[in-house]
Amino acid sequence: MRAGAGRIGGGSQSGRTQSLLAGLQVGVALVVLVAAGLMVKGFLYIQSMELGFNPRDVVHVEANLASVGYQDHSSRVRFFRELADQIAEHPEVESVSYSNPLPYIGWLTPYEVEGASTSAPRSSIDAVVSPGHFRNMQIRLLAGRDFNERDVGSDTVPVAVVSEQFARLNWPDESPIGRRFRPAAEPGVEYPWYEVVGVVADTRAGTFMPTTGCFYLPHGQHPFSEMIVAVRTRGEPAAMIEHVKRLIWTREPDLALQWNGILTETIRDRYNEPSLYAVILGIFSIVAIVLACVGVYGVLAYTVTRRSREFGIHLAIGARPGEVLRLVLRFGGRITAWGMLGGFIAALLAMRLAASVLYGVSPYDPLVYGVCALVMILVSLAASLIPALRATRIDPVEALRAD
Questions:
Q1: How far apart (Å, rounded) are the C-alpha atoms in residues 233 and 56?
Q2: What is the rounded CA–CA span in Å between residue 268 and residue 275?
Q3: pLDDT tens digits, one per residue of 118-176
Q4: Tens digits of residue pLDDT in 348-387
Q5: 259 membership: H or E segment, kind and range
Q6: Full DSSP string of 11-60
Q7: Which one, of 266, 310, 305, 284, lies nearest residue 387 by Cα?
C-alpha cells in the first residue's frame, strides 16, 4: 500500500508534464471553439439582415469611357443614356440603370452639413447613379423624388438623394428635404452645396462596413467616365451579359469591358469573409477538440495502467467500482477544469482583439461561451470514461501478481 500510495496522477515529472500538456490542449481547443462559435453566430446574423435592395436577376457590365477618349462631360452622359435606352428595348429586360458603385459595394467619403453645430466632417458611403437606379435596384423611395433627366449639367441646382440613416444622423428631428450638404473639400477642389430632394431606404454597404448611411448624386451632374450598367433581366443572365457587351462594342469597338457578372455572385464572391472564417475556424475547432480528447484520454489511460496495482488494492480491500470510477473521472475533471480556465482567459483576450471581424455579435457573448464550455466538458467526459471504466474492471489478484 505504501509503495503505491499517493494521489492518482502521481507526482512524477512525466505525469505532471502529460497532465500539463493535456490541459493546454483543452485550453487551445476552447479558444478555437469560441472563435468559431462567434464567427458562426455573426455569419448567421449577417445572413438574416435585409440588404435593402434586390440583387436577384441583375447582371452588370463595367465600362470606362476614358479609355476611348470620352473627355467631354456631355458626351459621357449621352453615351450611357442612349446605351440604357437601347438595352431597355430587349424583350427580356425588366429595367436598366447605371451607377458607380453598385449597392453593397462602396467606400467612405467625408462630408459636411450646412449649419451643423460641429465643423468636424462625417463620413458616409456615396454613389453616382442614373435616373431609375432606385427602381431598378428595388430600393424604396421614402420621401421626395428620384433623379430625373433635368438633373443634368453644371447650370442646374446640385441635388442629392440620401438614405434614411444618413438623414437620421444629420437631421434627426426634421425633414431632410431641402437641406444641404457637400463632400469635404480636397486640396484644389471646391464642391458645391447639394440640396436633398429625396430619401430612400437604407442598403447594406458591405459585410463589415459601418452603418453611416449613404448619399447619391446624379450622373448628369457628375458624369463619371467609369460606370457600371446594371440590367434586371427575365431571361438567362449569361446571354444578357453578352447582349449588353455587343451593344457597347457596336458603339465603341475598342472599349475594354471588365467586371462583368451576376450581382448575387459578385456579392457572394467579394464578401464571403464571415462564411470563410467560420468554415476555417470550424475545421480548426474539430482538430483542436480531437487533440484535446486524445490528450485527456492518453493521460488517463497511462495513469490507469501505471496505477493498476493501486486500484487493485482499493478493490481488494472493499472499494466499490463506482468509487474507483469517480477517482479517475475526478482526475480527468481537474485537467479539464484547469485547461478551461486558461482557455477562457485566453479567449476573452483574443476575442477582444478580433472584435473588428465580428459583426452583430459581442466578443463576450455568454451563450457562445456557455455552449463551448458544455461541448468541452462533454468531450473531456467522453475521453475520461473509457480509462475510468477500465480501472473498475481491474482484477486485484492479477494486479498484485503483475507486481
A1: 9
A2: 10
A3: 666 788 889 999 999 999 999 999 999 999 988 887 778 999 999 999 999 999 889 99
A4: 998 888 776 676 788 899 999 999 899 888 888 888 888 8
A5: strand 257-262
A6: S-HHHHHHHHHHHHHHHHHHHHHHHHHHHHHHHHHHHHS--SS--TTEEE
A7: 305
